[in-house]
Amino acid sequence: MQLLQLGENTWVIKGGANIGVIAYDGRCLIIDSGMDKDVGRDILNQVKKLGLTPTALLVTHAHADHFGGAHYLVRQTGLHVYATRVEAAVMSGPILEPLYLFSGAQPPRELQHKFLLAKPCLVDSILQGNEQTVDHIPLQVILLPGHSTEQIGVAFGDTFFVGDAFLTPEILDKHRIPFYADVQAGLLTLNTLKTRIAPFKHIVAGHGEIYTSVAGATHAIDYTVQRLEMILGHIRTALADGEPRQASDILSSVANAQGATINALSQYVLYNTTIQSALSTLYARGEILPIFRDNHLLWCRNEKA
Asked: Is the pTM higher than 0.90?
């Protein structure tokens, strides 16, 4: 893992997920904790090099790759853990992540690995998403829902840690269909985010590149918006002939249109969540309707829209 200094009191530890470090009076707040105890150990080693005492951990959202190291960090340091209400529930009961991905049913073993099932970590303080201080450190907590239900970002000085509110073009092109629990909320977050990043010199996404210009970050945000709008467009196309279709058939159509090949159960459930959310978005907008035929749930175009 690579330690990069962004500002006088701000660092990022680059790895599979980008970890934030905010220093204040000789102690520090850690933002996210990576995948597992190995990442947690690396975080503590990097913080030690800075001569800082870790006293708090803030988790932007409860996906295993962002809070998997929290269990280790708490055991080693006793630091105070912060997260929003829904994310805290998943952190305390990590089986909820593969559970919701598998439609609420007991998930098969292929979905019970560290990429989707972290070790549990209790949250000490529930955030509302509008705090001006955390652990007595002056900063701004900002709600960024979409990728996850109650995801948050953290603004401190000239740095904005945005979690997975947007994804870099490289990651989007690799995975084709980004994970979004709420596409409608995600689009609103992304469009609002473009106006919020203007004061910052560093915009830290949850994975990949650290943006040092508003133009670069804006391009990545727009690229994410375009991908989500493209997925909505693929669904409209799949239903354009007026023939009702099952969600699984719609997912197949979108994957084909995006040039994705599904060959693993974990990949399927992640893609499927985004498609289900996109269907929910179009339903809420009045563009499509659910119907039932021969005990199948089908989706069709709303001819009255």
From this structure: yes
